[in-house]
Amino acid sequence: EKRRVTQVEKNGYPDSIYINAAKIFQGIHTEKSEDKSQVRYGDNAESPMVTFKDEYSRRASYELAFNALKYQDLLEEILLDSKAYPCYSIPDELTSLLVVMLYDLQDRKFRKGKVFPEEEVVAEVQEIGHYLYSYKTKLAAALARCRIKYDALSIEYFLPENVWKQEKRASALPVCFWINTLKISLEDVIRDLEMKGFTKVESVSDFDHYTYAVDQHCHDVLVFPSSLREELLNLDLFADCRLILQ
């Protein structure tokens, strides 16, 4: 019997990913002049060391950090409007962690995140997570006020038009994966995908949700519909590096 791939719900990350995303964000966030900056990020003199335990951790950390960067102005406005910032129990050195965790919290509609019992618990992440969740109603209200203020249907409307158009184009592109032939053969990948309910088609023009095609020029590359990106990245084939995202 074929198994269906279930819709991936956004339910948070292990503490290590929040810490890594905060370190990355600390080094790339937009610096503002003293007279305009109401949110302070502490000393940025040295780039902190970032270590990843696997490919998923690396990808998720960078994705979270850059999403926070894209919406930095909005996230800061939400923190200030909700009165969640400033908080004197949270030092400036943890503001980056506060911002990236706020992005994730609003991304999952202010719902509680999943507990990862097998992962190491980081005290700072737990503290800020509980703090933000205690403000969830005020944070959600602040986001709603921002959307009304700027006549924005969703937070994507806060992006500059050129960035928004680029992301829209990129999101429509098919997703390509290399087959790591050192670990698995094309035949075994196809067998695994069929077990998960995927159907092979001849070309991208034949895509219909749970479908894929073999690249016509590179037979160790598989192509999938863009709508399946998040689901594919949660497959064991990707986690085990048997498929590698192009």
Walk me through what this model shows:
Helix content is 45%, strand content 7%. A hairpin with a 6-residue loop joins strand 3 (211-214) and strand 4. The chain is an alpha+beta fold and 246 residues long.
Can you give keywords for this protein?
246 residues; alpha+beta; Alpha-Beta Plaits; five-stranded mixed beta sheet; 10 helices; globular
List the helices and strands and how they pair.
Elements: H1 15-28, H2 55-70, H3 72-81, H4 95-107, H5 123-134, H6 136-149, H7 161-172, E1 175-179, H8 186-195, E2 199-200, E3 211-214, E4 221-224, H9 229-233, H10 236-239, E5 243-245
Parallel strand pairs: 2-3
Antiparallel strand pairs: 1-4, 1-5, 3-4
Helix pairs in contact: 1-2, 1-4, 2-4, 3-6, 4-5
Organism: Zosterops hypoxanthus
GO biological process, one term: methylation
InterPro entries: NSUN5_7_fdxn-like, NSUN7
